[in-house]
Amino acid sequence: MTRLAAPGLSPHLILTGLPGAGKTTIGRLLATKLARPFTDFDEALEQQFGKSVSQIFQQEGEQTFRAAEATLSHTIATQPAPPKVLAPGGGWITNLQAVAHLRPISRIIYLRISPTGALTRLGPGLSSRPLFATGDPTETMRALYDTRRSYYEAAADITIETEGLGKDALLTKVVELITAAWDLNLES
Predict the structure, then answer these.
(1) Residue 152 belongs to a domain with what CATH number?
(2) How many helices (H) and strands (E) does the chain have?
């Protein structure tokens, strides 16, 4: 489905996908390549709360974190700043209030990866993720995929397979697909 940004405005680019899909890594590279500001939602919320995402989840609860995501989304949507590359957390897509703020003025790029591929890519970094603090990581990742998959697919303007791609190949693929989309006049 093609969605249009407001006339005369270039859309924000929102990277979505499972933890380990490459949202932050590719987001930084894409922002540099396109000369756009980059916002990693987890980093912004860590600054706001003065603690890690894991600590926010443990001490404040997921509901507080999701409310802060929605507020951050609203803030970005109402800023008269240049368009950004945005990397929200993997669960942002299920936060309908947060998505509603940015959806009309954004393109959503779904970085698709299998649960097994995501776990492999995360490696030892998995231990710092709050949703993986307890239980079997493989089961947790599969459950996240099963829960979020329909949200990712329904919202996506572009879906990019990231399975087995290194960051250079992924960046090339993302830039090519975005350029092709813009050549189709999606932002007018």
Answers:
(1) 3.40.50.300
(2) 8, 5
CB of 160 closer than 8 Å to CB of 111: yes
Mean pLDDT, the chain, as a whole number?
84
CA–CA distance, 39 with 37 (Å, rounded to integer)? 7
Residue 127 pLDDT class (50, 70, 90 cuts): low
CB 18 within 8 A of CB 115: yes
User: How far apart are alpha carbons 149 and 140 in whole angstroms?
Assistant: 14
pTM as predicted = 0.86
Contact 89, 42 (CB under 8 A): yes
* Full domain range(s) for residue 70: 12-176
Structure tokens at 133: 């603090």
Q: Give residue 22's Cα distance to chain centre.
A: 9
Give the residues across from 159 on adjacent strands. Answer: 110
Domain count, the chain: 1
